Amino acid sequence: MSTDDLTQDLTRRTENAPQELLTRSFFFLCAVLSIVTTLSIIVLLTTEAAKFFSVTAPLMGVEGPTASVVDFLTGTEWVINNEQFGVLPLVSATLAITIGSAVVSLPLGVATAIYLSEYATPRARSLLKPALEVLAGVPTVVYGFFAVVYITPALKTIIPNLGTFNMLSASIVVGIMIIPMVASISEDAMSAVPDSLRQAGYGMGATKFDVSVGIVVPASLSGIFSSFILALSRAIGETMAVTVAAGSQANLLNPLNPASYLEGALPMTAAMVNLLTGDITGGGIAYRSLFAIGLTLFVITLVMNIISDLVAQRYREEY
Amino acid sequence: MTDNQKQEYAADESTDDPTTDDMAIRTDVSESVSASGPTTSGAPVVRAENVDVWYNDDQALQDISLEIPENQVTAMIGPSGCGKSTFLRCINRMNDMIDAARVEGDLHLRGKNVYDDDVDPVALRRRVGMVFQSPNPFPKSIYDNVAYGLKIQNKDGDYDEIVENSLKRAALWDEVKDQLDTSGLDLSGGQQQRLCIARAIAPDPEVILMDEPASALDPVATSKIEDLISELAEEYTVVIVTHNMQQAARISNKTAVFLTGGELVEFDDTEKIFENPDSQRVEDYITGKFG
Questions:
Q1: What distance in Å separates the CA atoms of residue A5 and residue A28, rounded to the nearest whole number?
Q2: Percentage of chain B surpassing pLDDT 90?
Q3: Which fold has domain B3-286?
Q4: Which domains does chain A have, with CATH numbers?
Q5: pLDDT digits (tens, 9 = 90+) for B156-175
Q6: Membrane-spanning regions, if any (chain A) (predicted)?
Q7: Can you tell me the distance from the alpha carbon of B209 to that of B283, in angstroms, rounded to the nearest whole number?
Q8: Which residues of B touch A214 (CB under 8 A)?
Q9: Mean pLDDT of chain A
Q10: Do B199 and A196 count as a contact with CB atoms less than 8 A apart?
């Protein structure tokens, strides 16, 4: 090959060849699509929510009834017909669902993950993992009916004064729903713990329990915490199951008091569904309150996700 | 820790009571003496008799018989795949964790066959410490790494003192005494391996197994580990696997040469192995003609 041929061959530009340009643009557009969608949702939420609050409504050129930010954030009554828009009862119900489902899902999810990662034989794993995936794939409205039709009657045999719609069965069912998420993310983290650490433990005369709980779990804490926070974000945003199971009474309750789980309440997501499916008039204040709740919910889950990232970084171990 | 293990440990504490069948490992002098080999200087701590190991249908070790003397360094050398690490892992039954592995024959620790049905591998491994090929400190503080064995065994005693002494014996104390709370993973590779040695000796085992402990380290760190191994042999019985023949020659009292196929070809004093081996195959291997 002559030098000229070689030079031509080596200096050929493939980077901007038409097919390269085309594929690159295609992949870029796909990546941008999700960003554009997210941004549009944020813009829609904030502009519509701005029309709801009396501070910002004039800026948006909205006439008619509005609500004050302070009343919204500190009000303890949510009665749409009276135009009482206090978001606290809804937030308290969402918090109750979060705490209740955490009590169910975190221990069970981590225990499942430990079993799958450390104890299960390949055969047991091959049965359990698909079962968990099925659990994750059940439509959430089915979980809601499951709570109303099965869990609540079962609980009533133990707690006779339990309401038909109550936070207890809603929390339990959301807890069951997010077990697969806790279990699978935690299990991934535990499986990523290098085997040399387990060998070191066993070589020291550690029992299986010592190794699982004393070495593997601490070494995978960052992943386990991430799974908690992602699962709880999911519980906060969970809609259909709680709409069906938790009822529609916007009670302000104390999420830390077990007794408050016996009655029904109205979590933020369920309130939004009720607003959408109820006979509210488009453009009215009730309609715009929907976006105020949506924005509140969005901020909460966003904060949770940021915390998740920070926690994961804080506890990450490099091997 | 289960009650059963507590009992075992309590029985361990009551020292030389031969009637305890706690973990069924005990000094049985008469048996050890009667079976002492021709070149054994002390009583053998580990005695293998006709040990065969299979991984599924592949035989990894064939009919291994040898005696490892107390308070000496015994080296296992041989080419890759000759079964030397497999043999090491038979001694503390780490092979139990490989489903495909099957061990036959007798392997005695101070006269007790560790493959008897009544031997708990967990209790066995508390008597036989292990240091691995690449440093594997836990993602815990230096202190917690060294104290780990004490904690899982619920040992009594002043942990601070034991941790300090173990780190001193592992020649690491001066480098880490001001940073015991920092993660063991922040140390250099050589320091990590010395930390692993400190971790292995803290619960005061009888035997320390080392599986190519310096193969992942640079020459300076390697020479520190080698010095350390010679010192450890004053108090412990050390069995070391290495594929570095010079290392075996430098630090060991006795050398076992495994060759391909899982055979123990020769086992004798290190000097004899390196200067005047009986077997032509061993001579070829040592002089680099094959392997």
A1: 35
A2: 55
A3: Rossmann fold (3.40.50)
A4: 3-52 (no CATH), 78-315 (1.10.3720.10)
A5: 889 999 999 999 988 899 99
A6: 21-45, 87-114, 134-155, 167-190, 211-232, 285-307
A7: 26
A8: 148, 152
A9: 89
A10: no
Residue pair B53/B103 in contact (Cβ under 8 Å)? The answer is yes
Instruction: Return the closest-CA partner of residue A113 out of A105, B60, B79, A277.
Output: A105
Angle between helices A221-237 and A88-114 (to 10 degrees): 140
Angle of CA points A312, A189, B136, to nearest 5°: 100
Query: Nearest C-alpha of chain B: how many angstroms from A223?
Result: 14
Query: CB count, 10 Å around CB of B11?
Result: 17
Beta-carbon contacts of A265 under 8 Å, excluding residues fewer than 6 positions away, are: A89, A92, A93, A96, A167, A246, A247, A249, A250, A251, A253
ipTM over 0.95: no
| The token pair that represents B187 in the structure block | 């140390």
CB contact under 8 A, A207 and B5: yes
Instruction: Name the residue among B31, B4, B34, B29 with its Cα closest to residue B16.
Output: B29
The one-letter amino acid code at A230 reads: L
CB-based contact, A317 to chain B, within 8 Å: yes
pLDDT for res A54: 86
Which has more pLDDT, B43 or B201?
B201
Q: Is residue B189 pLDDT above 50, yes or no?
A: yes
Residue B23 has pLDDT above 60, yes or no: no
Phi, psi of B44 (to 5 degrees): -70, 135
CA dihedral B87, B89, B95, B97 (to 10 degrees): -170
pLDDT tens figures, A114-128: 999 999 998 999 999
Q: What is the pTM of this model?
A: 0.80
Structure tokens at A185: 């993310």
Record: contact B139-A205, CB cut-off 8 A? no
Residue range A36-54, pLDDT digits in tens: 999 999 999 999 889 888 8
- The answer on pLDDT for B26 being more than 70 is no
Closest CA to B277 of B244, B249, B251, B250: B249
- Could you tell me the CA-to-CA distances from B26 to B19, B32, B116 in Å, in that order? 9, 11, 13
